[in-house]
Amino acid sequence: MAGIRVRPAEPHDREDVTALHHREWGGPYVVVHDTRYDLRELPTLVAVDGAGRLAGALVHRLADDGLEVVSLAATSPGLGAGTALLVAAEAVAVAAGAARLWLVTTNDNLDALRFYQRRGLRIVAVDAGAVDRARELKPTIPWIGADDIPLRDELRLERRLTPGQASLASTPS
Ligand SMILES: CC(C)(COP(=O)(O)OP(=O)(O)OC[C@H]1O[C@@H](n2cnc3c(N)ncnc32)[C@H](O)[C@@H]1OP(=O)(O)O)[C@@H](O)C(=O)NCCC(=O)NCCS
Predict the structure, then answer these.
(1) Burial code of 43-56, b = ≥16 C-beta within 10 A, e = fewer?
(2) What is the Å distance from ligand 1's center to 115 Cα?
(3) Whose CA is nearest to atom 6 of ligand 1?
(4) Per-residue pLDDT tens digits for 13-24
(5) Rounded Cα–Cα distance for residues 141 and 77 (Å)
(6) DSSP 3-state of 123
(7) Which domains does the chain have, with CATH numbers?
(8) Residue from 1, 115, 168 whose mutation best tests the ligand 1 pocket (most atoms within 8 A of CB)
(9) What is the separation, in whole angstroms, between the first and last Cα of the chain?
(10) Sign of CA dihedral 2, 100, 60, 105
């Protein structure tokens, strides 16, 4: 992740972050676990490269049940932005005394499942049909997802944040 720096989003990031969310999710709204979020209203961390360009963005929500990563997207995959943002989100969670970091992804997103599991998150629940329900709230959600996999289900992943536990920064090598 050489050259990647993470900081809270600033007003001048808005346009680029909006464009990234539009590319990934079709706009600023996401529907997960039967909840519709407006990404513009939630705290956002951005990763920037050495030239100051946006490399990724992570939107999160802190609540009694932990820190939820509501959206994570990199402008170009494989450059380290996703890892850097996840490490930074964990630091936010730990600083807030959260017991876990968690998120929801979809059954077609094999890249994300690999990415998160290699970084210490575990699949803790599968909600069959959750994306079909989400489509009722957000009809633009496609029927066919990555790798031509029918897009239907949500998987919940989490990482427990216990004192003394190795941080995401140390996994994987
Ligand atoms: C999943 C995602 C957030 C990961 O962010 P990233 O910046 O690509 O992450 P990193 O560069 O830190 O690590 C990417 C991993 O993919 C590998 N990789 C390398 N080149 C890659 C490429 N061209 N495409 C995808 N992955 C690549 C990296 O080696 C690394 O794997 P590792 O586990 O062996 O270290 C990002 O790919 C993304 O934006 N995906 C689309 C949006 C999405 O699905 N978000 C998650 C929804 S919950």
Answers:
(1) ebbbbbbeeeebbb
(2) 6
(3) 82
(4) 999 999 999 999
(5) 22
(6) strand
(7) 5-161 (3.40.630.30)
(8) 115
(9) 12
(10) positive
